[in-house]
UniProtKB/TrEMBL annotation:
Entry's EC annotation: 2.6.1.18
Pfam family, one: Aminotran_3
Organism: Actibacterium naphthalenivorans
Coiled coil: none
InterPro entries in the cross-refs: Aminotrans_3 (IPR005814), Aminotrans_3_PPA_site (IPR049704), PyrdxlP-dep_Trfase (IPR015424), PyrdxlP-dep_Trfase_major (IPR015421), PyrdxlP-dep_Trfase_small (IPR015422)
Classification via PANTHER family: AMINOTRANSFERASE, AMINOTRANSFERASE CLASS-III
Name assigned to this protein: Beta-alanine--pyruvate transaminase
């Protein structure tokens, strides 16, 4: 196995979203993964409570994906997708079109969720310009939103820490309010009240003029902030207001895509079809970086129509790694696993067990709120001296106690793989109970 943690030279790798100074004092390193488990270089075993970073829905170390990747590497390891293509990307796009809500059947590929978000923003702008509405350059997003870290996504962001250092370099975004309120504390599933918060979009239209707005971006379930489930009727109301004003509705499904809610996409789960869906993470089960933007046919039609008669690309946008053949092969293998193992159905069946386990943490002194839907849940910690300090401390303690969990600020985000057994879910809850029962 790999070298021992203490022997690793850590000065050169600048870790993302990490307190690098503290990490070097107390490195928490994974050297191996299988199923719902990680192992440190020293051989200590941890349960994976967050599918890595909401990626490995089918569990780690799937041989089907490894074999598909290896085969693809030997057959066609790379192809550019500017004026060239590989068969595997067409096959993947067709499979995704079949999985996406009806009408969303054009697929643009990137390598990360952040790229998918920025691509979706550019597609929205290009669509309006193609239809003679180039003045629609403004976006609407939501407080507490996370849409990745590229400049477009940073402008959409509603989390202050992700914006503060980068203001000035971003585009025109107006934010709606988030949908959480005090009276929702400890609500399991969708809150009954709060649909009226969608009217913020109507208010923004009144202030800025609907004809200036290109698209409204929301995570159907706000994931990274700590799992905020949409109030009943909220997404449908957003859809209705966006339609009335010719504004595109974008669901950022980077976390909720691929069965996390029990349906393929949250759009289907909540019965609201957006115009564009962004996805990443579980698309390849996390094994190879890849993202995609699912787009309604008529959006592509409009962009193509504008280029009619000219020998030029319809969309002047793309990445060196758009539709990387190895990523496509990994994604096809992941989709086969989801289908053949019935993992979206498994996610739906496991959800009550998972949510029972999470909501069983209710009376612990460190817990101030619990939220959850499907196979994703947020455990809000009573804040410590500084915002986020408790979350940092707890996720380090959980690592030492044998559980990997993603923390954002003072929220822990649980999202186990759908292949977890009921007893593994129970063990995760036991470790949480042990650590969150401590005073600190
Ligand atoms: C909703 C959402 N959008 C975008 C992203 C960014 O994805 P990536 O980190 O792959 O760029 C994330 C990542 O967690 C996300 O949760």
């Amino acid at each position: 196995m790999n070298m021992n943690t203490q022997a690793m030279a850590m000065d050169h790798h600048w870790l993302p979203f990490t307190n690098n100074r503290a990490f070097r004092q107390n490195p928490q390193v994974f050297a191996k993964a299988k199923g719902v488990r990680y192992w440190t270089p020293e051989g200590d075993e941890l349960l994976d409570g967050s599918s890595g970073l909401f990626c490995s829905a089918a569990g780690h170390g799937r041989p089907e994906i490894a074999e598909a990747v290896s085969r693809q590497l030997m057959e066609l390891d790379y192809t550019p997708h500017f004026q060239r293509a590989a068969p595997v990307s067409f096959e993947l796009a067709e499979r995704l079109a079949a999985l996406l809500p009806e009408g969303i059947d054009r697929v643009f590929f990137g390598a990360s969720g952040s790229e998918a978000v920025d691509s979706a923003m550019k597609i929205a702008l290009a669509y309006h310009r193609a239809r003679g509405q180039g003045q629609r350059t403004r976006f609407v997003s939501r407080a507490w939103a996370y849409h990745g870290v590229n400049l477009g996504g940073t402008a959409l962001a509603g989390m202050v820490g992700n914006r503060r250092d980068f203001s000035g370099a971003t585009c025109d975004v107006v934010h709606m309010r988030h949908t959480w309120s005090e009276d929702q504390r400890f609500t399991r599933g969708q809150p009954d009240d709060g649909a009226h918060l969608a009217d913020d979009l109507e208010e923004i239209c009144k202030t800025y003029g609907p004809e200036t707005i290109a698209a409204v971006f929301v995570e159907p379930i706000a994931g990274s902030i700590g799992t905020i489930v949409p109030p009943k009727g909220y997404l449908a109301r957003l859809r209705e207001i966006a339609d009335r004003h010719g504004i595109l509705l974008v669901f950022d499904e980077v976390i909720t895509g691929f069965g996390r809610t029990g349906s393929a996409f949250a759009a289907q789960e909540f019965g609201v079809t957006p115009d564009i869906i962004t996805m990443a993470k579980a698309l390849t089960n996390g094994a190879v970086p890849m993202s995609a933007v699912g787009v309604k046919t008529e959006i592509q039609d409009a962009v193509f129509a504008a280029a009619e008669g000219a020998d030029r690309p319809e969309l002047m946008h793309g990445y060196t790694y758009s539709a990387h053949p190895v990523a496509c092969a990994a994604a096809l293998a992941a989709l086969n696993i989801y289908r053949d193992d019935g993992l979206f159905e498994r996610s739906r069946a496991l959800s009550p067990v998972f949510l029972d386990a999470v909501f069983g943490l209710r009376n612990l002194p460190q817990v101030s709120d619990l939220r959850g839907y499907g196979m994703v849940a947020g455990v809000q910690l009573a804040p410590g001296d500084q915002p986020g300090a408790k979350g940092m401390a707890v996720q380090r303690r959980l690592f030492d106690a044998g559980l990997h969990v993603k923390a954002t600020g003072d929220a822990l985000i649980l999202a186990p793989a759908f292949v977890a057994s009921e007893s593994e879910i129970g063990q995760m809850a036991d470790i949480l109970r042990g650590v969150l029962g401590q005073a600190f």
